[in-house]
Specification:
Blueprint lengths: L21 E6 L2 E7 L7 E3 L5 E3 L2 H43 L6 H7 L3 H31 L14 H52 L24 E7 L6 H9 L8 E7 L4 H16 L4 E5 L6 H10 L9 E4 L5 E2 L3 H5 L9 E10 L6 H24 L10 E4 H6 L10 H11 L3 E12 L5 H28 L4 H36 L7 H16 L9 H23 L19 H7 L15 H14 L9 H20 L2 H18 L9
Parallel strand pairs: 5-6, 5-8, 6-7, 10-12
Antiparallel strand pairs: 1-2, 3-4, 8-11, 9-12, 10-11
Helix pairs in contact: 3-18, 4-9, 4-13, 4-14, 5-6, 11-12, 12-13, 12-15, 13-15, 13-18, 14-15, 15-19, 18-19
Length: about 700
């Protein structure tokens, strides 16, 4: 690179510097000096003392200037990258807004099950809060520009005009607004610390389990020969697959269950189809008929009236007369694919253990690396199974049934009152009632059942709404029974204060209130303080603990922290709906599946006679597929959504971030900035599956 003879190449008076030739290796955007040399290295400089020194002073100064220049170029490259990302985000936002599909449309409200009244009230609250924040930001910017830096002693001085109004606002803010916000802040911080302590204790329990290698072991195991019922412990097992309009996954679940390694005479498969789509009913019925022809003991049941959703479906199936011949029931949702040895690794735990009511296996996921949304879900669920379920199972013999991938003792179900349709979390309901009747649970962390994660934010949002509204419904209904039940006091305390209040109510409450309401308010009311360790250090530590069960997900720790705070809006809304029986508390929406199992997986599970045939459920599958394709073409085009609550909160957080710049609060500014961007991405549905 030739020496630059511009600004750095000449000095005043016309005397030119003796240049230092520099060879620069250009690797945009990274710049590095590969060689710096000076032809004047041999020149000598006479010092004041008469000593001679080689000319190094000029050379060193030139080197420093070039290094600084290259660092400036690197910084400019970073700024250009940030600007490009901002432009790309703006373009994506413009295209998404131009599509005009928001979550406020009647069709979306009906699909999500949220009440329009509840939705509009919550959204109106957020909009009002945003309007107040914008007004306060305008006032603070005006005060900053005009230099109204009024100290406490100056507030009593007579001032005129806008400055007088600003002084009055400061007095009112300090006297009336700040104490209330500070009280709410302190309360949320206390709840935050309690929940963090609970999380830390659970992690220590998991560490102890690993250190001591504690693992549930059956007292008797089934012998390898599954075709000889008299050779081992092979009790009668009923296998149920409840499903509803899930044509993407029915084949793989039915095939996996029919290939379970268990004596065929000792287990029966019930396909419980609640589908209201005639095409889906036909496909499932033909799949069942295909396996019946191959000798599998499998039956198809369809309900015309879908009363009680999944709970009603399971309750109806348990009323069949032949169920009395079976001792255990295994339940798998439509997207679950158990391994052939699933029953061999779970059912033996019931042998000689009459107090055991449930054996629960953990989930594994076929699409955990599909997109950022599935990666973040994977972190949450890994912690749930590895820490929460395992620790509660080992130390308490109680945990919430996950609704699938579990084996129940039918006597425990009947003793607990059977399936009830009173909530949308029938799995947690039956688990709590069984616990109150003295039944014990076992969680097997080493037995996995493959399933899918929701790939779109819309599907994930619906799922989380049901998972967080249902427990609050159940808490209202079960609280009198828990208090009256004749179990140990510590078990009652665990159910009320830890299982329900702390983990199902307090967690979404303080997450939303502390990080989405209080933190922005403290920017406009600086008299109320939120410590830096609450904003940064403790959440970072909790995120680190959450991510420990899935160490490969460590690069996603920051997106995970921001996304969890973003999801607190949906969880808080769902918690309030369930607690006060509002709107969507009793609505069930089936989580959409994509059917991620490959065709090779289906072929490997198919009967031997069909492996060399064309993949299908029946000879007329081609005609059915053409009909299905035509119905898709005639249907409405699929779109990504725009979520108004998340967008409004993103504007609120970004407004608070702008206000924090005036007070130079570094940690608060960065947290609010990135959290606001996170809400913006979610509000524009730019996370998860993208629809063209």
């Amino acid at each position: 690179m030739a020496p630059w003879s511009g600004l750095w190449g000449a000095k005043a008076g016309g005397d030119a510097y003796r240049g230092t030739p520099v060879v620069v290796k250009m690797e945009n955007p990274n710049w590095s000096i590969s060689e710096i040399s000076s032809p004047e290295d041999d020149d000598e400089e006479i010092l004041a003392t008469g000593a001679r020194r080689k000319g190094g002073r000029t050379k060193n100064a030139k080197q420093i200037r070039w290094v600084l220049l290259l660092k400036a170029h690197r910084a400019a490259g970073c700024l250009a990258s940030l600007a490009s990302a901002a432009v790309a985000l703006g373009g994506a936002a413009r295209r998404r807004v131009a599509a005009g599909r928001t979550d406020a449309e009647a069709g979306v409200v009906a699909a999500t099950g949220e009440s329009p009244v509840v939705r509009s009230r919550f959204y109106a609250f957020i909009k009002a809060f945003l309007a107040v924040s914008l007004l306060l930001l305008f006032v603070e910017v005006a005060a900053y520009i005009n230099g109204w830096d009024l100290a406490d002693s100056a507030l009593a001085l007579p001032v005129l005009g806008l400055e007088s109004l600003y002084a009055s606002w400061l007095r009112f803010r300090a006297a009336y607004v700040a104490p209330g916000i500070q009280f709410l802040t302190d309360a949320c911080v206390v709840l935050f610390l309690i929940q963090s302590a609970d999380r830390l204790i659970q992690c220590l329990g998991c560490f102890y389990i690993r250190l001591k290698r504690i693992k549930p072991t059956p007292k008797s195991t089934a012998l390898p020969d599954a075709e000889d019922p008299d050779a081992g412990y092979y009790p009668m097992v009923l296998v149920q697959i409840p499903m509803c309009n899930e044509k993407e996954v029915y084949q793989q679940s039915i095939a996996a269950v029919c290939n379970l390694d268990w004596p065929k005479s000792n287990f029966l498969v019930q396909v419980l189809d609640d589908s209201d789509d005639p095409l889906t009913q036909t496909l499932i019925r033909e799949e069942v008929a295909k396996w019946q022809q191959q000798g599998a003991r499998i039956v198809y049941r369809h309900r015309v009236l879908r009363d009680g959703y999944k709970a009603g479906n399971l309750k109806s199936a348990m009323s069949c007369s032949y169920v009395r011949d079976y001792e255990f029931v295994a339940i798998f949702d439509a997207d679950f694919q158990p391994n052939p040895d699933f029953l061999k690794r779970t059912v033996p735990h019931f042998k000689d253990n009459e107090e055991l009511g449930l054996v629960q296996a953990r989930w594994s996921f076929v699409n955990k690396d599909e997109n950022l949304l599935t990666r973040l879900q994977y972190i949450n669920l890994c912690f749930h199974f590895e820490v929460e379920q395992q620790v509660n199972g080992v130390f308490l013999n109680f945990f919430g049934f996950n609704g699938t991938a579990g084996v129940w003792r039918i006597k425990a179900l009947e003793d607990s009152g059977g399936w009830m349709e009173r909530t949308t979390v029938e799995d947690m309901d039956i688990a709590v009632r069984a616990h109150l009747h003295g039944w014990k649970f076992i969680f097997l962390n080493d037995v996995e059942c493959q399933c899918e994660l929701p790939e779109s934010y819309e599907a994930y949002r619906k799922q989380q709404h049901r998972w967080h509204s249902g427990p609050m419904q159940l808490f209202r209904l079960c609280l009198p029974d828990i208090i009256k039940c004749k179990i140990a006091f510590w078990k009652k305390a665990n159910l009320i204060f830890l299982f329900f209040l702390l983990r199902k109510l307090i967690l979404p409450f303080y997450s939303f209130t502390l990080f989405c309401i209080i933190l922005p308010m403290t920017m406009f009311v600086p008299e109320a303080e939120l410590p830096d360790w609450v904003v940064c250090y403790i959440p970072a530590l909790m995120s680190l603990l959450n991510i420990l069960p899935s160490p490969k997900s460590f690069p996603f720790i920051i997106p995970y922290l921001l996304f969890e705070n973003t999801m607190s809006v949906t969880k808080f809304n769902a918690m309030i709906s369930g607690l006060f029986q509002l709107g969507s508390a009793y609505e069930w929406v089936v989580t959409k599946k994509s059917g991620r199992s490959s065709e090779g997986d289906l072929i490997s599970l198919a009967p031997k006679e069909l492996k060399h045939q064309k993949t299908g459920s029946a000879p007329n599958l081609d005609a059915v597929a053409k009909e299905q394709l035509a119905s898709k073409r005639d249907g409405k085009k699929k779109h990504n959504r725009i979520y108004k609550k998340e967008l409004a909160l993103s504007m609120l957080l970004l407004t608070a971030a702008a206000r924090s710049l005036l007070s130079k609060q570094g940690i608060h500014f960065y947290f609010l900035l990135f959290q606001g961007i996170s809400f913006l991405l979610v509000g524009l549905d730019l996370i998860g599956e993208q629809v063209e």
